[in-house]
Design a protein that fits this description.
Layout lengths: L1 H23 L1 H13 L7 H6 L4 E10 L3 H14 L3 E9 L3 E11 L3 H9 L5 E10 L1 H27 L3 H33 E11 L2 H33 L1 H22 L1
Parallel strand pairs: 1-5
Antiparallel strand pairs: 1-4, 2-3, 3-5
Helix pairs in contact: 6-7
């Protein structure tokens, strides 16, 4: 009885030692490491969020009246130079009531408030003044975390590729690396675009000068007269072309009318 008991105890001890040896083997550790790296990252902690500065996108839209279009534009140009900003688009025009100019400016976010104060000097009131902000810190942290995870996964696959010996294994690993690389480049592009929107704020500026009432009426009346002349000419041309297109029917109608008239005259006689 005792020899059988000793044999059972020895077998259990040997089984435990074998499992411990497997756990300590490099292959086992590699498998655990691969699973750990492949796993999705845990949500960012409060310390990680504090490590990344707050990401705020700023935008402003202004519309106001001015007495001098050119002078206002020179003032905006001066503010652009002082704030290290750039003019993205510039358009001007005229309608029946005013001369106007629309400008879109890209200004470094740290100079956003200074630029607004500079171009607001001398403006009595704003027809429109909209200033908005968008906090994209959480979105930035999420993209950054996913990017780092993909980069670690790529490093892990590269290490495995160095140890691969079979052609089939090498091709499969390279396929995985290529897919991960595409995801990394996509995340990097999204981060770059988000950072550009954070670092530079967009400001739309529309300013106008009213046209005198008499001048507006004169321009409007002259425009209407010219339009009427052009319209009459086109209508006359259209009528002439229509007559040319239906001339066979007109001749036929004339012949029939002439025949009927002649026949009626005979009956009366």
């Amino acid at each position: 009885m005792r020899p059988a008991l000793y044999s059972l105890v020895f077998a259990l001890l040997f089984s435990g030692c074998s499992k411990q040896a497997d756990a300590d083997s490099p292959l086992y550790k590699d498998e655990v490491s691969a699973i750990t790296v492949s796993a999705p990252p845990p949500p960012g902690t409060a310390d990680e969020e504090k490590a990344i500065p707050q990401k705020i996108i700023k935008y402003a839209s202004l519309k106001f009246e001015t007495n001098d279009i050119e002078e206002t534009f020179r003032k905006i140009q001066s503010a652009v130079k002082q704030s290290d900003a750039t003019i993205q688009s510039d358009s001007e025009g005229k309608n029946d009531y005013s001369l106007y100019r629309n400008i879109t400016v890209r200004v470094p976010s740290q100079n956003f408030d200074v630029f607004l104060q500079s171009i607001s000097k001398g403006v009595s009131y704003f027809d429109q003044k909209d200033i908005s902000t968008e906090d994209v810190t959480e979105q930035y942290i999420d993209l950054d975390s996913r990017l780092k995870t993909k980069q670690k996964l790529e490093e892990r696959y590269i290490e495995i590729l160095k140890k691969a010996t079979k052609i089939s294994e090498i091709l499969e690993i390279e396929k995985q690396i290529s897919a991960i690389r595409e995801e990394i480049e996509s995340k990097q592009g999204q981060l770059k675009y988000l950072q550009s929107r954070v670092s530079e704020s967009r400001i739309s500026i529309e300013f106008y000068k009213p046209i005198a009432e008499k001048q507006s009426i004169k321009i409007s009346y002259g425009s209407k007269v010219l339009t009427a002349i052009q319209s009459g000419f086109f209508e006359l041309s259209g009528l002439f072309i229509w007559i040319i297109s239906v001339w066979p029917f007109l001749i036929l109608f004339g012949v029939i009318a002439f025949y009927l008239r002649k026949r009626f005259k005979r009956k009366k006689i």
